[in-house]
Amino acid sequence: MRWPAAWPLLRFDLMAQTLFALTIRLALRIAMVWAGGFALAVAVRAVLPDQVGLTFTSPRSTIYLPYSRIGFWVCLLAALTVTGRPLVHYLAGAEIWDRDVIRGRQDPLQKAAGIAVLRGNLAPCGAIIKPAAASPHLLQHRGRAVVFDSIEDLHARLDDPELDVDADSVLVLRGCGPRGYPGMPEVSNMPLPAKVLREGVRDMVRICDGRMSGTAYGTVVLHVTPEGAAGGPLSKIRTGDWIVLDVPGRRVDVELTEDELRDRPVAQAMADAVAQPRRGWELLYVNSVQGAETGADLDFLRGSSGDQVNRESH
Q1: Residue ranges covered by each domain of the chain
Q2: Once rounded to an integer, what is the mean pLDDT over residues 230-259?
Q3: What is the full DSSP assignment across the chain?
Q4: 116-296 architecture in CATH?
Q5: Has residue 189 got a pLDDT over 50?
Q6: Predicted model pTM
Q7: What is the average per-residue pLDDT within 235-239?
Q8: Which residue out of 68, 150, 188, 213 is catalytically annotated?
Q9: Is residue 213 among the annotated active site residues?
């Protein structure tokens, strides 16, 4: 069975976690006694039954992989054995048991499919997409925007039978960047509208200035900068605008002229929905946080403070 094209979600059940921990402990003890990295590999493979493993799920398939196939013991490669050498030292003749699980460098599942940085008039400072998690037919796409001004707006309207959306639409969620939604939540991989799900659609282009989980999947453009709350172009687009995604060309654009985009006002509904703290740490954060393209750091932490301690604290 082939690994799914979209990076899967991992689900551990409680029993598997417990057996995993016990197995690691047992294998380490065996390795210490036998004083060899190969002994550890054999021990881990021997004591793990095929009924214990990981379940990987994606929109296209579900795969169950026993730990004995995954070769997970490589997580211990940096650990020193009683010989004084790390386990990796003993792997010169290591064998890959299942090349559907662990592929060689010359046979990747997908080529150049890590993270792509996009730019364009919708993301002048950049945006991110994971091609490996996206649907190939959507990597170059033109669609009509369906805009949501906050996560609450999304939840309230997404499954409305009257929502004007189809499989070619581009879902846009804004106000979720570090300033608009302190903490920059993992909401960019929006669920699909019930209307298109009933038609069998399993992926759509989605655009957001927030984050998404590293194990999430979908054709999702995230970390759009400048964010909506900072007055970026994302704050000015409207439902019905045409958006063009071109991942091979590293572009994401809205079909508006420079003058049209500049003269449009920021959407009032989004401005009303973003964080508006009155005091405390949240106010300090909102007033000081920088964009995602700089790491969402605080402006007063730029540069180096050095390691000198000016005054003792005791």
Answers
A1: 9-90, 116-296
A2: 96
A3: -PPPSSPPEEE--HHHHHHHHHHHHHHHHHHHHHT-HHHHHHHHHHH--TTSEEEEE-SS-EEEEEHHHHTGGGGGTTSB-TTSSBGGGG-TT---S-TTTS--TTS-SSSS-S-EEEEETTEEEEEEE-GGGS-GGGSEEEEEEEEESSHHHHHHHTT-TT----TT-EEEE-S-STTTSTT--B--SPPPPHHHHTTT----EEEESSB--TT--SSEEEEEES-GGGT-GGGT--TT-EEEEETTTTEEEES--HHHHHHSPPPHHHHHHS----SHHHHHHHHHB--GGGTS-BGGG-S---S---S---
A4: 3-Layer(bba) Sandwich (3.50)
A5: yes
A6: 0.69
A7: 96
A8: 213
A9: yes
